[in-house]
Design goal:
alpha/beta; six-stranded mixed sheet; four-stranded antiparallel sheet
């Protein structure tokens, strides 16, 4: 079976803050339809690279291509329009909106947002609104949030906010999801639920995932391939079981051991 084509390609990317080079000639590819992970010790450059991929910062040297487009200097909203969405270490829900309203914000190409349609073809917007509401109900039910649909998002628990963030992103019809520490600060039961949702979204909807994650048990359990960063560069790539035996990877982590405590 031929290898899947790369949907994301990072080529010789570097980025400095003053005299400090946070990302230093970093290169790797992410295959379409995969669940991949980006790991590394604190200070490896992962957060900076995530910002560059998501459009929060512009690359200084090198290039980033997504789905055949050069996104190296694109703003975040343009990157999102291409289908690359990211989540954050701290959930960014719309706290003053209900859970249902949060899901109705992201869908693209909403007809009711057009001034012409609002004035001259309002029925188009109303029909689409009903369709989006039906879809939002389905997504909320899938993520186990339907009973909370009328609750203000700001009142949810930390784990429920993680689920809401993922559900909201799904409503935007992404091709690629960049998840920044999705398992941080949540209990094991919810981690297992998130695992299942990520795998289902890949298998059923063809969404590609790149997780920046410190929980190496999760990485080993659900990720097809892992990219290890250290000192701003790509140190190694492969399956987690292989990387645990790689002396360079082991040395990159604190304490000389590659486990969850060292990764934190």
């Amino acid at each position: 079976m031929p290898a899947a084509e790369a949907i994301l390609t990072v080529s010789h990317v570097s980025h400095s803050f003053g005299g400090f080079r946070a990302v230093d000639d970093c290169s790797f590819e992410i295959a379409a339809g995969s669940i991949s992970a980006l790991i590394g010790p604190n200070g490896a450059g992962k957060s900076t690279l995530v910002g560059l991929i998501g459009g929060a910062m512009r690359t200084q040297t090198g290039s980033i291509h997504f789905a055949g487009r050069n996104i190296s200097r694109m703003s975040a909203f343009k990157v999102a329009r291409l289908g690359l969405l990211r989540t954050y270490q701290v959930s960014r829900e719309f706290a003053g909106l209900t859970v249902m309203e949060n899901l109705l914000v992201p869908p693209p190409n909403q007809r009711g947002e057009s001034l012409f349609n609002a004035l001259f073809r309002p029925s188009l917007g109303r029909v689409q609104d009903r369709e989006l509401a039906d879809r939002a109900f389905e997504v909320l039910e899938t993520f186990g949030l339907l009973a909370l649909r009328d609750e203000y998002a700001g009142n949810l628990s930390g784990g429920e906010k993680r689920l809401l963030e993922l559900a909201r992103a799904v409503m935007a019809e992404p091709k690629f999801m960049l998840l920044d520490e999705p398992m941080a600060g949540i209990n094991p039961a919810l981690i297992a639920r998130l695992d299942g949702h990520i795998r289902r979204l890949r298998d059923d909807h063809g969404i590609t995932f790149l997780l920046v994650e410190h929980n190496l048990d999760v990485v080993e359990r659900i990720c097809d391939r892992v990219v290890v960063m250290a000192f701003g560069r790509t140190l190694a790539e492969g399956q987690m079981s292989e990387l645990r035996e790689n002396p360079e990877v082991v040395r990159a982590y604190l304490g000389g051991g590659l486990d969850e405590r060292a990764a934190g």
